[in-house]
Amino acid sequence: MRSIHYDTNRFKMLIVLVALIAGVFSLVYTQQLVGELAEREEQQIDIFAKAQTIVAATEDSISLNFLVNDILGQNFSIPVILTDEHHEPIEWRNVNVDEDSAKQQAQLRNYLQNMKAIYAPIKIEPIEGVVMFIYYQNSFLITQLRYFPYVQLLVFGMFSLLAYLVFSSSRRSEQNRVWVGLAKETAHQLGTPLSSLIAWIEYFKVEPQIDANIIEDLEKDVKRLETITARFSSIGSTPTLQDENPLLLVQDTVDYLSKRISKKVKIEVSYPKLETLPLVAVNKPLFEWIIENLCKNAVDAMAGKGNIKLEISVNKDRKQIQIDVSDDGKGIPPSQLKRVFKPGFTTKKRGWGLGLTLVKRIVENYHGGKIFVYKSELNVGTTFRILMPIK
Ligand SMILES: Nc1ncnc2c1ncn2[C@@H]1O[C@H](COP(=O)(O)OP(=O)(O)OP(=O)(O)O)[C@@H](O)[C@H]1O
Ligand SMILES: [Mg+2]
Predict the structure, then answer these.
(1) In terms of DSSP bridges, do strands 80-83 and 381-389 run parallel, antiparallel, or are they unpaired?
(2) Which of 138, 162, 180 is the last residue of a domain?
(3) Nearby residues of 321 by Cβ (< 8 Å), 6 or more positions away
(4) Domain count along the chain
């Protein structure tokens, strides 16, 4: 089995896996860091509380600023509020409050509430009989740090999504250009020898020595070449769509194919009453190409003999024509189901893995329809379903 996509998919999975591991690692690491820092802050508060007691015992006034600046240093950024025994704030540090006293009181109370929710206030007794409380919470740095890995993950996720979108759209448009360019060029190259062949046939027709049967065969071959050229030229430009009866198109293609495949493979077309079939806007050469490709794959899936069924029907809401192409061949293994439409995916010795890619392109890009594997069972068969919009 050959598939370039298999490798790229594995590569993508690997990238995602590495990113995930890096994300989890960063999360764990930061949490650990936060834990250590928080512990350090608790120790700082503890030292602060002890110092508070000692200083208060030796001096008559308790100055929070003095303590914070001189004992713990300028780096001390933990929000602290010193209260009296009734939990009324006396002094505070690293706390963001207004100068306006009315508002200030409310804000301080709010702080006390929040602080209490995280750490129980430390009770100190700097002087015999004087009870005070130290309220505190973690510094803003720690709070930020706690969210940091999530922010990091979010940024990383958004970046990957963007990269994926840019990457896949540029690759798709590049693929598009290659397809269209190649098809156009092929149609162009075939055009010249074809017109000269047609001229030769006209010339042979009036030559009595040349067998009429040979000329007839030649004409058929030229017709076929013309069809191929029309397909390539349609896919290489914006194809014109015309209202056609889907049954007639399917029948035409089946007639053509039946003559060219093993007699042991039967192709059957089923449809509702002819008059109930609405017309669909299709490009004839391209539509026939779809049916041809699906039938060829069906034949390949059989060991020389079997049945192919083409069932045409109209959806209940009459918005879509449904064409089911079923075979009783070897089926598609579930692990390959997702890849059959990918360019280059083939399980055949002489396959290019282009048939279904082309079919999908024609159905979806050129006709606004849908195609998918409706069902497939190993050694039972496969059904491809096409949905074409009715105007
Ligand atoms: N009806 C089917 N039954 C079982 N397998 C199928 C069927 N149709 C397609 N496949 C699987 O999907 C693969 C891709 O099909 P696709 O038509 O794109 O390429 P291919 O037939 O291998 O080569 P190419 O059409 O380019 O000559 C096939 O190789 C086959 O494994
Ligand atoms: Mg094929």
Answers:
(1) unpaired
(2) 138
(3) 246, 277, 278, 280, 312, 313, 314, 315, 387, 388, 390
(4) 3
Residue range of the domain that includes 82: 4-138
377 CA distance to ligand 1 centroid (A)?
Answer: 15
- Within 8 A by CB and 6+ apart from 239, the residues are 283, 286, 366
Ligand nearest 328 Cα, by number? Answer: 1
Residue 267 CB partners (closer than 8 Å, separation 6+): 254, 257, 258, 261, 295, 307, 308, 309, 310
Ligand 1, CB within 6 Å, residue ranges: 297-298, 301, 327, 329-332, 340, 345-348, 351-357, 382
How many Å lie between the centroid of ligand 2 and the Cα of residue 351?
Answer: 7
Model confidence pLDDT, tens digit, residues 186-216: 888 888 888 888 888 888 888 888 888 888 8
Instruction: Give the predicted TM-score (pTM) of the model.
Output: 0.61
Q: Which of 75, 107, 138 is the last residue of a domain?
A: 138
My answer on whether 171 and 229 are in the same domain is: yes
Return the CA Rg of the chain.
Answer: 39
